[in-house]
Design goal:
Helices cover 40% and strands 26% of the residues. It contains 15 helices and 18 strands. Strands 5-4-13-14-15-12-16 form a 7-stranded mixed beta sheet, sandwiched between helices. A hairpin with a 5-residue loop joins strand 14 and strand 15. Helix 2 packs parallel to helix 6 and helix 12 packs antiparallel against helix 13. The longest helix is centred in the C-terminal third of the chain and has 30 residues. The radius of gyration is 21 Å and the shape is globular. The structure holds flavin-adenine dinucleotide. The site of flavin-adenine dinucleotide has 38 residues, from helix 2, strand 2, strand 3, strand 12 and helix 11.
Length: 400
């Protein structure tokens, strides 16, 4: 298949090694693809009954874009790229405050960048993986036992999967982590915010085509984007001391309580929200001092969730999966050593992204009006050619 470079163009030499991957998100499917490229047989176990839908918008640039390229995903992702769009910063009633043309963002970020829905990345990976992997939807993991030579996973339907390696790519609330390491509370660092995101019908955004409108106020951000049919979406982030109460309330009532006073299409977007269609969760990082134990390794949000405030979790899932394949190929049958080497290589980047996310909270939920004003000054300054060069260099430094 032309779309998936490395898998298609390299003859896969079977190694006889078997991997079980829990979770068919970006991390799990990327691991399945990469392990196959190294000659492994792979079974993927996904709790959802079928493939998930579009989700929310993710940006891939820097190492995330490079990893997508190495995995051979660019031909499938490029046609889904939303590209750069005009961003309008608005007052609470929806009136325009300032406008950042698409060309300004493009000049700052550069051309090795993609904006796609999370579902597009998962679809590109799924298409590449489905022809060789055994993907079991509607199943989860009930027990995990390992010896020096293999891992035995008991699934919810009582089947056993025996393999050389188990990859726990089951997201921030990972069951694999809980079974092999410890309860989530041991590793979850609450950043004190909620995030919601969902697709929208473009016709009802009240915005011209190709425009995203963002309101940033003390403790909260709301964005509505009209990027055409099937590509429009809404995004919300807000400070919240009690995320359990918000989750119990549910996405639509909680988001309406936090943002229902805003104009500019926000209230309309919230009215469109149908139960079960939004991503809605608390924002918290997973911080662990080990990502593997014997033949079990955690990958993606399960291991290190950097959060939406980093804007980098999908990138790290792809890069982490790619590097995992490389480390396993380099260390032959010595899987624990391969996992150690992989972790040593990846840890500095993960630590950097987690730190950047903690610093970045104020961009999404400024703590005061003064901080809102300072953020606006930054956005105005970006439009000045000299400052634009500085911003571009800062983005490049963050990506190196
Ligand atoms: C609003 C928002 C915007 C973002 N923007 C960006 C961005 O611009 N750039 C970027 O790089 N990143 C971004 N991210 C982060 C990125 O989307 C995530 O870090 C990434 O998708 C994580 O992938 P994952 O596969 O590790 O986890 P997940 O996407 O959570 O996938 C886990 C999978 O495991 C399955 N699963 C869970 N439990 C079980 C179980 N017990 N058994 C079997 N299966 C199970 C789930 O159903 C799911 O399919 C954003 C995140 C959010 C919320």
């Amino acid at each position: 298949m032309e779309a998936f470079g490395r898998a298609a163009h390299r003859q896969v030499e079977p190694t006889g090694k078997r991997a079980t991957v829990i979770g068919a998100g970006i991390a799990g499917l990327a691991a399945a693809l990469r392990l196959r490229q190294e000659g492994w047989d792979v079974v993927v176990v996904e709790r959802a009954p079928s493939r998930r839908s579009s989700g929310y918008l993710v940006n891939l640039h820097g190492p995330g874009y490079d990893a997508a390229e190495r995995l051979g995903l660019l031909p499938a992702l490029a046609p889904r790229d939303i590209g750069f769009f005009t961003s309008v910063l608005v007052h609470a009633d929806g009136r325009e405050k300032l406008r950042i043309p698409a060309a300004v963002t493009e000049a700052a970020v550069g051309d090795r960048a993609l904006s796609v829905f999370r579902g597009d990345v998962e679809s590109a990976l799924y298409e590449a993986v489905a022809e060789f992997a055994d993907i079991r939807f509607g199943a989860t993991v009930r027990a995990i036992a390992q010896t020096a030579g293999e891992v035995d996973v008991t699934l919810s339907d009582d089947t056993h999967l025996r393999s050389d390696l188990l990859v726990g790519a089951d997201g921030v609330h990972s069951r694999v982590r809980e079974l092999v390491f410890a309860a989530e509370t041991e590793y979850f660092v609450d950043l004190g915010h909620m995030v919601g995101a969902f697709p929208l019908a473009s016709s009802s955004t009240q915005l011209p085509d190709g425009v995203g409108a963002t309101f940033i106020g003390p403790g909260r951000t709301a964005a509505v984007m009209n990027l055409g049919p099937g590509r429009s979406s809404a995004f919300f982030a807000y400070r919240c001391p009690d995320h359990a109460a918000e989750l119990a309330l549910g996405a639509a009532p909680a988001l309406t309580r936090a943002f229902g006073d805003l104009g500019g299409g926000v209230a309309e977007a919230l009215r469109q929200l149908e139960p079960g269609t939004a991503y809605f969760d608390s924002v918290g990082q997973i911080v662990m001092d080990r990502w593997s134990r014997g033949r079990v390794v955690l990958l993606g949000d399960a291991a290190w969730c950097v959060t939406v405030f980093a804007g980098y979790g999908a990138a790290l899932a792809l890069d982490g999966a790619d590097q995992l394949g490389t480390a396993l190929a380099a260390h032959g049958d010595d899987i624990p050593t391969a996992l150690d080497a992989w972790e040593t290589t990846l840890r500095p980047e993960v630590a950097k992204r987690q730190a950047l996310a903690r610093k970045g909270i104020s961009r999404f939920a400024p703590s005061s009006r003064a901080q809102v004003w300072a953020g606006e000054m930054m956005l105005r300054a970006i439009q000045l050619p000299g400052i634009r060069g500085l911003v571009r260099r800062a983005i490049q430094r963050a990506n190196n």
